[in-house]
Amino acid sequence: MKHMLSSIVMASGLMLGSSIVSLAYAADQGAAKPDAVKGEQLYTNGDAARGVLACASCHGAAGNSTIPLNPNLSAMPHEYLVKQLIDFAPKDEKSAPARGGADGAASVMTPFASALTEEDRQNIAYYLAQQPLDPDAAATATNEATMERGQHIWRGGLPDRGVPACAGCHSPNGAGVPGNFPRLSGQHPAYLATQLKLFRSGDRHNNTIMHDIADRMTDADIAAVADYAAGLR
Description:
- The protein is mainly α.
- The chain folds into two domains: about 1-15 and about 135-230, Cytochrome Bc1 Complex, Chain D, domain 2, CATH 1.10.760; about 20-130, Cytochrome c-like domain (Cytochrome Bc1 Complex, Chain D, domain 2, Orthogonal Bundle).
- It is about 50% helix and about 0% strand.
- Helix 2 packs across helix 6 (about 120-130) and helix 4 packs antiparallel against helix 6.
- The radius of gyration is 17 Å and the shape is globular.
């Protein structure tokens, strides 16, 4: 019961924090609505004059990546994508980005995200949030040997180590919660595993709760749940 209560409190706190972030973005933008057409243009073609590369070259048409280490971004919550693009860029010359690469190295996304304006981020994210996940491009679970363990962690967590069920925040079918938590269904297992390890090491430090969760997971736990999440629909 104590572990269950702890998991509920943890999930509720994350939901509240994410909701506050979403409200903050909305307040900053006022009544202005992001432009999906401009977002598609920038995502597909980039803007060479400003040094903005086409996102599609790495993340695929309409956000459906076919490269295992590059996440597919279609059907992701708009607010979540905006926050990640902000976190990839340093706040100033003296600060490191909240999302870094392994072993303290800069993320490959840092120079790309740094070239975007706030309007660019809003437009690209708004466009991607409206794109459906392509079933032909989406990843699937492939490791039958770890399927049962992955399902156990996704649905029930690891109570003895204080790891809450992934489904509590990312929804039972992995679709995520719009405005709060990202979609993980159909995401590439290699990418999910890499991000959990970056959370665990602290190289990705834009979500304290995810760091605490990943810190209690072994490599085997991470591999199992990452593979299972990929097969959810």
